[in-house]
Design a protein that fits this description.
CATH architecture: 2-Layer Sandwich
Strand content: 15-25%
Distance between the termini: 47 Å
Order of helices and strands: EEHEHHEEHHH
CATH class: Alpha Beta
Number of helices: 6
Number of strands: 5
Helix content: 25-40%
CATH superfamily: Ribonuclease H-like superfamily/Ribonuclease H
Length: about 200
């Protein structure tokens, strides 16, 4: 059972990212402020849900949330500032866009770059512990999946419609055959040999 709040007296935003470990595409992050009494029996860490249930929950979260926002940092910026800083930036951009200002940020994971003067709590596996983080994980994941489906149409050989840019065997074999494309993260040392750009 997910907890609805870390501090019942504060306006809390849950934050999570998606795509940090991918070979290609952007990293997405979401920030979600839920009502303190929000409940849905399917709500959980996005990684534990089927694609169908994530897609079912997304409009419910968007409708019921007090505020939510989703942001991305693209592959070029990831290569410039590194994936950790890009993840922080995507989270900060999401907080920037919230229509209601949170008083406490609940972060999935063990590290975060402080945002302005808002206090935060880093919670390992927080997406399986707190409703707002679980909701953020679902929004970040579904928005990123939609983006990867779009760019899959440009480069179908990498099968991003199935692997979403993660380093599956099929994806790695396609890189070996076709080289890296414009959406690949060039700083990820994907290939040990000289890379070939499309």
């Amino acid at each position: 059972m997910l907890e609805n709040s870390f501090d019942i007296n504060k306006i809390e935003a849950g934050l999570d990212e998606a795509g940090r470990g991918c070979y290609a595409g952007p990293v997405f992050a979401a920030a979600v402020i839920l009502p303190k009494d929000f409940y849905h029996p399917l709500l959980n860490d996005s990684k534990k849900l089927t694609e169908k249930n994530r897609d079912l929950l997304r409009p419910i979260i968007e409708k019921e949330a007090i505020a939510y926002a989703v942001s991305m940092v693209d592959h070029n910026e990831i290569d410039q500032i590194n994936i950790l800083q890009a993840s922080y930036k995507a989270m900060h951009l999401s907080i920037d866009k919230l229509k209601k200002k949170p008083e406490l940020l609940l972060i999935d994971g063990n590290r975060f770059k402080p945002y302005k003067k808002i206090s935060h709590e880093c919670i390992i596996k927080g997406d399986g512990k707190y409703s707002s983080i679980a909701a953020a994980s679902i929004l970040a994941k579904t928005y990123r999946d939609d983006y990867m489906l779009k760019i899959h149409l440009e480069y179908p050989e990498y099968q991003w419609n199935k692997n979403k840019g993660y380093g599956t065997a099929v994806h790695r074999n396609a890189i070996d055959k076709y080289g890296l494309c414009t959406y690949h993260r060039k700083t990820f040392n994907i290939l040990p040999v000289q890379i070939k750009l499309l």
